[in-house]
């Protein structure tokens, strides 16, 4: 046991002292935090470039229908040929040309936008949404209904269901399916990447030591099983340390970024402001109400996020990462011991990576139906449970299912590392031949 500890210490200190480990460990949280904050920040940025769209209405029915905005200017052209304008858009200072032509359907004109480059999405949305609402209004007016505008305003309703999770003791906590789905997706995908990457690192490390003949020196002092176990647990401790640093730093950086962004974007009108705006402009009041509703939705999501059982989530992630990694690392180590260079591993690693790929496919179904039979059985299978159980965990998993899944995973790990050690002890000292899984399985029956 002391020899295994020494190997663990050697693997840990060797990898922690590498510049690549330090750089990746410190820079990755910046990348993760940027992924969390940047989309919201970029979405909040407004395009300040003024773009002028020329409109030629050949129907005569949609003149002056499309309004200008702060950054999108609409110019209607009369007595002008579209062919001449569209060939000289840049010279005329136009961003694009919209041509409205008649069709057999009086309410469905033919709309064509000409532009020297791909039009921006905000320009397309402004033109499409405005004309869509105009056409809908004209169709409704065709029914000759009195006070149609007032009726439509009264009918328009937004439904928002508040989700509360109630415990057996009757305690109610705010929850959110969106938050649970996001956490499930992030945790499962991170588990898949970490297990696959770190498992392959074990294989590469074994191949390097075998090709450099370093292993022959080490084998003279320790047993192959001790060496493989020490290497696997040593790299596991490095990965767990790295994950802890990533979680703490990413949470801190993302928290600061989100707080700054919220302060910058926070707009919550008071009741007096709403009343004043409603008297001056109903449309402006509706816009302010929408902003206020958006702020409330953001607060509800934050409350649901804070109500998550982080002890269970973090503990579950560390447990399933540790044993999922150990399970796959043992198999990767066995493969690494049977080859002399990385190019010979492709055929041998395919059966190992297939369950992980299958787990990612099942993950989508697990997020949609975490208590369904597919998610349940794949959360019990030890080769997929590290990913699928984390998919189910944010939605709540019965204690017996969690205990059963964990027990099966641990028992399978013990079996796999015992079998992998038998392959490792034979393959680590063999050279000059490519081996298959069939031949490697025969090594299991060799007597020590």
Supply the number of structural domains. Answer: 2
DSSP E strands, number: 6
Figure out the total of helices: 17
Note the quaternary state here.
Answer: single chain
In this structure, how is the largest beta sheet organized?
A: 4 strands, mixed
Q: Whole-Å distance between the termini?
A: 19 Å
Strand content: 5-15%
Compressed to H and E, one letter per element, the order equals HHEEHHEEHHEEHHHHHHHHHHH
Shape: elongated
What structural class should be given to the helix and strand makeup? alpha/beta
Structure description:
There is one protein chain. The protein is of the alpha/beta class and 448 residues long. The protein folds into two domains: 51-153, 3-Layer(aba) Sandwich (D-Maltodextrin-Binding Protein, domain 2); 177-443, no CATH class. 67% of the residues lie in helices and 6% in strands. The protein contains 17 helices and six strands. It has helices at residues 2-16, 19-44, 82-87, 89-92, 121-141, 148-155, 177-211, 214-219, 224-265, 271-280, 282-306, 310-338, 346-368, 373-380, 385-392, 399-427, 437-443; strands at residues 51-57, 72-76, 96-101, 110-114, 164-166, 172-174. The strands form two sheets. A four-stranded mixed sheet has the order 2-1-3-4. A hairpin with a 5-residue loop joins β5 and β6 (172-174). α2 (19-44) runs parallel beside α9, α7 runs parallel beside α12 (310-338) and α13 crosses α14 (373-380).
């Amino acid at each position: 046991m002391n020899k295994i500890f020494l190997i663990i210490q050697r693997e840990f200190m060797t990898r922690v002292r590498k510049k690549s480990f330090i750089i990746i460990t410190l820079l990755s949280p910046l990348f993760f935090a940027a992924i969390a904050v940047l989309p919201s920040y970029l979405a909040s940025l407004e395009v300040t470039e003024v773009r002028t769209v020329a409109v030629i209405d050949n129907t005569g029915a949609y003149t002056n229908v499309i309004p200008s905005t702060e950054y999108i200017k609409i110019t209607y052209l009369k007595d002008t040929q579209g062919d001449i304008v569209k060939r000289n858009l840049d010279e005329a200072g136009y961003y694009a040309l919209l041509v409205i032509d008649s069709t057999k359907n009086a309410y469905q004109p033919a709309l064509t936008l000409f532009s020297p480059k791909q039009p921006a999405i905000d320009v397309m949305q402004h033109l499409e949404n405005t004309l869509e609402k105009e056409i809908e209004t004209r169709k409704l007016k065709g029914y000759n209904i009195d006070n149609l505008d007032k009726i439509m305003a009264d009918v328009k309703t937004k439904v928002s269901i508040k989700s509360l999770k109630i415990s057996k003791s009757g305690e109610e906590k705010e929850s959110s399916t969106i938050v649970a789905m996001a956490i499930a997706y992030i945790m499962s995908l991170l588990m898949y990447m970490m297990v696959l990457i770190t498992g392959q690192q074990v294989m590469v490390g074994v191949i390097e030591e075998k090709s450099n003949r370093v292993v022959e020196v080490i084998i003279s002092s320790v047993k192959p099983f001790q060496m493989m176990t020490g290497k696997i647990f040593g790299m596991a401790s490095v990965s767990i340390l790295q994950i802890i640093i990533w979680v703490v730093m990413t949470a801190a950086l993302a928290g600061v970024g989100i707080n700054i962004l919220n302060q910058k974007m926070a707009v919550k009108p008071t009741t007096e402001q709403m009343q004043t705006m409603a008297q001056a402009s109903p449309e402006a009041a509706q816009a302010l109400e929408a902003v206020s509703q958006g702020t409330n939705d953001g607060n509800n999501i934050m409350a649901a996020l804070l109500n998550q059982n982080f002890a269970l989530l973090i503990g579950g992630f560390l447990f399933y990462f540790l044993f999922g990694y150990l399970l796959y690392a043992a198999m990767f180590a066995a493969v690494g011991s049977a080859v002399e260079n990385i190019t010979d591993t492709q055929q041998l690693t395919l059966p190992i990576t297939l369950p992980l790929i299958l787990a990612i496919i099942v993950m989508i179904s697990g997020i949609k139906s975490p208590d369904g039979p597919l998610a349940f059985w794949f959360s019990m299978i030890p080769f997929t449970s590290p990913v699928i159980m984390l998919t189910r965990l944010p939605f709540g998993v019965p204690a017996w299912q969690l205990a059963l899944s964990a027990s099966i995973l641990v028992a399978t790990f013990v079996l796999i590392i015992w079998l992998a050690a038998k392959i490792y002890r034979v393959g680590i000292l063999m050279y000059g031949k490519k081996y298959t899984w069939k031949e490697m399985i025969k090594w299991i029956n060799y007597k020590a």
